[in-house]
Amino acid sequence: MASNKYGKILTIILIILVIAILGIVGFIIYSLVIKPYKDNENIEQAMAQFDSTITGEGAERENVIGKESTNEIELTNNISTGNSGSGGGRSKTYYNGYVMLGYIEIPKTKIKYPIIQDTTVKALETAVAALYPTNAVLNSPGNIVIIGHNYRNGKFFSNNKNLSVGDKIYITGNDGKVEYLIYQIFEAAPTDTSFYGRDTGGVPEITLSTCTDDVNARLIILAKANI
User: Fold this and answer.
1) What pLDDT digit, counting tens, does each position of 100-130 carry?
2) pLDDT (tens digit, 9 = 90+) per residue, 67-112?
């Protein structure tokens, strides 16, 4: 009887262990394979929808990509369209509920991300964002500061430390795509904004800002439009 009871306890423990292991494996597969795939799919769809607003295919409508829109439009397969109610004008694209100003591509680090308008803590978990100036218009004269997290895993601006002077960055905004060339890289204190409003001589420039791996400073990358 005692051995029978002991055997049942061992069986229960083994079942619990198997369930726990399957749960852990499932979580790892979701985190490392399924979620990145879905995120990348959403990003590609967002970029395609944004491009359609440039070419006019998305005229007089809002394109919504992601989990939920700011207008609370219900999504199917992560994308839906709704009437903007504006009666005309340029349409807006939303990514995970945040207005997209455009998107960034950095060939060397192999990243593509929407650039959103919102800079809240929650928004910055979703994409990179235009911090400065307020109501920034991508690829316009002057400097635009784009911020993104360094998660040290390749996501967002994690690999900006691998960029060099002369590397290319592409920014797509409402008026199309512009190539930028990196001309300066340095570290700055988290509170240092002295380079935000620099004189660009009327040339479009961007500043990429992210934290260093030790989070004690900001890695700053300055790039100028190659026009």
Assistant:
1) 999 999 999 999 999 999 999 999 999 999 9
2) 443 333 233 233 333 333 333 456 789 999 999 999 999 999 999 9
Distance CA 193, CA 121 (A): 19
CA–CA dist 112, 89 (Å, integer): 27
Q: Are residues 15 and 114 in the same domain?
A: no
Assess whether 86 and 137 both reside in one domain.
Answer: no
CB 125 within 8 A of CB 149: yes
Which pair of structure tokens corresponds to residue 124? 């910055």
How do 176-188 and 218-225 pair as beta strands? Answer: antiparallel
Cβ(114)–Cβ(95) under 8 Å?
yes
